[in-house]
Design goal:
The chain is of the alpha+beta class. The protein is about 45% helix and about 10% strand. It has a three-stranded antiparallel β-sheet with strand order 1-3-2.
Length: about 110
């Protein structure tokens, strides 16, 4: 399996709103650059740059079909990450009070 460092590099590679949208579309199936142009609304060279970053980090790959490059996901971790981004998450509640020190007293004034 991938090492922790490789997983961190994948997270860095996908950490961009356009790349998350690209990966969300690729989770639905194979797409070519013109497909991305239609729903992203950005220029083809910009899309190609994002695809290059994802490919360099082994998140996606492509095959050639005539004149088209057809992109697809290769890293299974990405499917789970994309699903997390799509969820509406509840915030974690703050603790009711601060932890007590070894002496049993909080070493300062409490701010509210």
């Amino acid at each position: 399996m991938d090492s922790l460092l490789e997983k961190v590099e994948v997270l860095k590679a996908i950490a961009h709103p356009v790349r998350i949208k690209i990966l969300d579309e690729l989770a639905k199936g194979v797409k070519c650059v013109s497909d991305f142009e239609d729903f992203l609304g950005i220029a083809q060279p910009n899309i190609s740059q994002h695809l290059s970053v994802l490919r360099a980090n082994k998140v996606i790959d492509y095959y050639v079909d005539g004149r088209l490059r057809c992109y697809f996901l290769v890293n299974p971790m990405v499917l789970e990450i994309v699903e997390i981004f799509k969820k509406e998450l509840e915030p974690i509640p703050a603790p009711a009070c601060c932890p007590v020190t070894k002496t049993g007293k909080y070493p300062g004034e409490r701010r509210r």
